Structure formats: structure tokens, C-alpha cells
TrEMBL record, chains A, B:
Residues 1-63 form the GST N-terminal domain. This is glutathione transferase. GO terms for biological process: glutathione metabolic process. The keyword Cell division does not apply. It comes from Oryza nivara.
Length: 206, 206
């Protein structure tokens, strides 16, 4: 949604109850059975990073390019997006959904990867520089879910003393009108889910 | 290497001993400490799918495009490449490196994902159609390592009765001069590794 808003493309938003997946979702993404799915001219595209690239490709002349024009910068953006998905999100999710030793190990792993990212940001406002780009959009949901995980667990993962640039990035990203007007509808969470980590996680996974 | 050969780009090939990683590798890929790494004008790029996209971007006018020009076809190529990395390779690797119940489960999971891929190929010679493209290159190493895994375990994963198109694809891919002249140098495997699944796996992982 954020990428479509950057491009100024109109769209319909269909919400999915992931505990009771619609036939439309199962038909559009039979391999992963997950959201998001973008349906463009009747054809479905799944996987958030694939969707982001598609939006940038198909509306390449609208507003600005989400991926850098320079091939090397573009490769770096893809590298860090992939890093977020493969190396950073899994320990954060594990930290949130486990207990004891397993949780401690996941915490250490998450901190290690967050430090890597802190150095990538290195005094920049956004990963894309002065405006948000591919990496910001790809990692953007983390800026939203990490504070929720922190509230529920009562443990802070990203503190401004340890992660000054990541903290500023999260605040800056969430503060963008484009982003804050299109966050996941937390108020629609069933109250019974709030205490159930997995229930909440699944919903956020939408 | 296959992608560089498609583009007709000259390169130097530096082999890594992954049991004794060079400083060059550790400096070029400090995050993953893995091969392959492409060094272009002194700048390193890691992660095989990121490298493939970079090669296609930076030498976009040489020979033919590795990724489809059409944005939707391009999204599909990215989707299936990602599927190979995320959903297919892990159970195949697990099947090869575990025993008992764990191995049986991995076998089932691998077969399920291979069947998905068989349907994607659907009577095509290559995933890219008449010539190899992004998905072929991305999954290409499987055509090479699966028969080796099969030889070592004595179990066939891809039989021509269950997977007629995948079998034909593997044979077709490995038969291309471009590919067969640039396979990993199996003859350089230390004899002592042949019996050690992990040793072999690591080397092939290079």
C-alpha cells in the first residue's frame, strides 16, 4: 500500500482474516497462502519484495523510482531488503514467540543483526537517503511491529542509546503521512487476541 | 559464472576454500561470509540472486536480458527464483543431511515442492522458455547437486516418471555448453570428503 501511494496509484484494499482464508487468497497465492497479494489486471503477484519491484517496474515513470537507478546501489538495496527478510525478521519473531533460553538466544541474534543495520543506516535519515526507498518499504513493517512486540513483552529491543539511527529511522518512517495514514488497523484486533501472542502475530502477518 | 558467460563478460574466477575462508571473502561479504561474491570495479556484491539481477542490470544491452522485459513475467521469474531458495532448497538439503524420521519428512516436503515446480515448467524446455533465464540460472545448481545427492544417498528424488519435465529440464540445462563447461570442479574434491556429507555439501555450497 505504501508503494502504491508513493506512485499515486489507486487501488482497492481487501482485508483477509488469516484464520479463515478466502477462496480468492487461496486461488491467488496457492504456494504460500499468505498476504499480501497484489492483483493487477486480473493477475496475482505474491511476496512483498516481488510486489514492490513489480510496482516500481510497471509504474516506472510515476513520481520517483523506489529502487535506485544505479545498478550497484540497486543491488545494495536488494541485498539489505533480503537481509531484513532472511536474517533479521526471523530472530525478532522468534524472540517474540518463545520463552527462556530460546528467547534469550533469539534476542542476542536479533541484537546482532540490528547492529549491522544500524551501521548501514549510518547517519542517514532513510535507507533510501532523503526519501524512502526499497529498503525502507521492505523493512517498514518492522518499525511498526517491533514497538508492539516491545509493549507486549515489556522488553525494549531498539533503544535510542544502542540504536540512535534506527530509532530515528523508525520514528521518521512512522511519522510520514503516507505511512501513518496506512498502518495496519490495530483497533480491529479482537480484544481476545491481544493476550495471545500467536493470534496477534498472525494478524500482523497480514 | 553462467550469467557472465551469457553476457559474454570476461572475469577472473577465484576459488575459496570454505573451511579456511580468505580475508578477501570475509571483507567482501562480512554479513553472510559466503560465496558467491562478484567484485565489480572494486565493489563487492553478494547473494546469488542479487548478483544475477546486477549482471542483467549493468550489462543490460549485452546479448539478451536474463530477466523478462514484461513486468508481470519479471515478477513471476522473481517469485519462482525465491521459491527455489526459500521453499525448495531447504528440504532438499535437509533430506540429504539428516536421517530417520527427519529425513522422511524432508523427503515428503521436497517432493511436494518439486511437484509445484514440475507444474510451473509445464512442457517448457526451460523456465525461461526456449532459452535459459533467471529461474533456470537461479535453480540451475540444483540440476547439478541433486544427482550427486542421489548418488550418495542411493535414493532418487527426481525420476522421469514422476517429474518428466523437471528431468528433461535438468538434462537440457546440464547439456548446454555454457553450463557444462562451467560446473563446479568435482574432481578437486578431496577423496576424504566424498564420504562426508557435510564436507561435500560445504564444498558444493561454494
Amino acid at each position: 500500500m505504501w508503494a502504491l501511494r508513493i506512485k499515486g496509484v489507486e487501488y482497492d484494499y481487501i482485508e483477509e482474516d488469516l484464520r479463515n482464508k478466502s477462496n480468492l487468497l487461496l486461488e491467488c497465492n496457492p504456494v504460500h497462502k499468505k498476504v499480501p497479494v497484489l492483483i493487477y489486471q486480473g493477475k496475482p503477484i505474491a511476496e512483498s519484495d516481488v510486489i514492490l519491484e513489480f510496482i516500481d517496474d510497471v509504474w516506472k515513470d510515476l513520481r520517483y523510482r523506489i529502487l535506485p537507478e544505479d545498478p550497484y546501489e540497486c543491488a545494495m538495496a536488494r541485498f539489505w531488503s533480503k537481509f531484513g527478510l532472511d536474517k533479521l525478521s526471523p530472530p525478532i519473531w522468534k524472540w517474540f514467540t518463545t520463552q527462556g533460553k530460546e528467547q534469550e538466544d533469539a534476542y542476542e541474534a536479533a541484537m546482532e543483526q540490528l547492529l549491522v543495520l544500524e551501521k548501514v543506516l549510518d547517519e542517514k535519515k532513510f535507507f533510501g537517503g532523503e526519501r524512502i526507498g526499497f529498503v525502507d518499504l521492505s523493512l517498514g513493517s518492522l518499525s511498526y511491529v517491533i514497538p508492539i512486540y516491545e509493549d507486549i513483552t515489556g522488553v525494549r529491543l531498539i533503544t535510542s542509546d544502542k540504536f540512535p539511527w534506527l530509532s530515528a529511522w523508525m520514528e521518521g518512517f512512522l511519522g510520514l503521512p503516507l505511512v501513518k495514514e496506512h498502518l495496519l488497523p490495530l483497533d480491529k484486533l479482537r480484544p481476545s487476541d491481544l493476550g495471545k501472542r500467536f493470534g496477534l502475530g498472525f494478524y500482523l502477518g497480514a
